[in-house]
Design goal:
With about 425 residues, this protein is mostly helical. Helices cover about 55% and strands about 5% of the residues.
Amino acid sequence: MWFKDLDLSKISDDARYKLFEYIVNVKKLKSSDLSISYSTFSRVRNRKIPVSDSLLIKILQHITPEEFAKLVSAGERLRALGIVKEDGSIDYSLALEFVKLILRDEYLKNLVLRFVVQEFKEDIRKMLGVSFAGIKLEWSEDFENFLSERKKRRKVRDPETINYYRNLFKKHLEGKELSEELVEYVANHRNGWLRNVFRHYIQYLYHRRRIPPETFGWIMEVVPSRGYKLDVRPYQISIEDVRKTLEFLKENHKLYYTVYRTMLESGARFEHILEMIRTWNPNEVVVIESIDLETERLVCFEDRGFCRYYLGLRGHQKPCEWIYMSRGTIELLKTLAPKDIDRNSVRRYAKRHNLTLPKMFRKVSWRIMVQTMPKEVARFIQSRFGELKTSEARYEDLLTEADKHYPRYIEKLIRESLT
């Protein structure tokens, strides 16, 4: 039985009454269930006589260890287990047995580590010899290069993210000396992105051997990374709203209409469409090494009414290879591209005129596209390479499959009056 190692003499009268009342009021046990007379049952219930050891054993047979833990204080449980002695001293041999459990239970280990870091931060620092040695924080090209090229985990290459990190760093960290006070300041800062850029900088210092492993480990434990709330986001995008957005842009802004139309037809990301328009060079010959193909960037299938443009962004965090679009969209692009378009200007224009935001068009495109072709083909067209299975990505001729199925998607858009 789970309670066989308990020292019953260490369980107080009050705790015993709580256990008795629990099995009577919650478990609905009667005197017969405990094998005692009704008079004894009644006198214990009214706290006129104590709960004897023999009755306590009968009570413990009807409750779980979890229920016992809820009803009896931690101090009494430790005394009953013999870990804490009557005079308050500790039985270290039993305490060490508990410590050994940490080696076998990952959750318990993390729980204890977090408690120790929180309660004994200064002691840990002294024990590990954590030293900052007058290190001053300074944003540099070398740090930027570390972010984009040398980080072991996810690299930071998006220019907007780099700019945001730089502004945060300059405002809160630039020129400050690495210290416990600064670590505490960043750890408790309400902006989680500041914690992120600070952690990146600590990794950079460690990479450059400017801080020892003990310092690196302590700071990375004390300063949490930015938390991400995982939730289900319902995107209520009305096809009618999409149609109205395209109609408004067609009448009022030809350039933005072309951007939106290309996003819808291709399912490509907003930033990739802007990159294609900025660097538009349809006659350039490129070599696609993965399939050993030499081709012009723009390949058109006149008899089937569509073209695909090879953007070839593979080394970025968000890749994009082919951008599919209708023949009509190509004619629009030929009159406008190449052109540098400010993404924020497009967003502000959309908000000012109560239009569907650009980022939503990729979601709309996906919703319609999967109705007209297999999902793995739609993933290929939209460059969702991370969602493709290895066999699909490497061995299947998805380019040929995409060329075959894409006209059905354009036909669907025409039926919905979206192109």
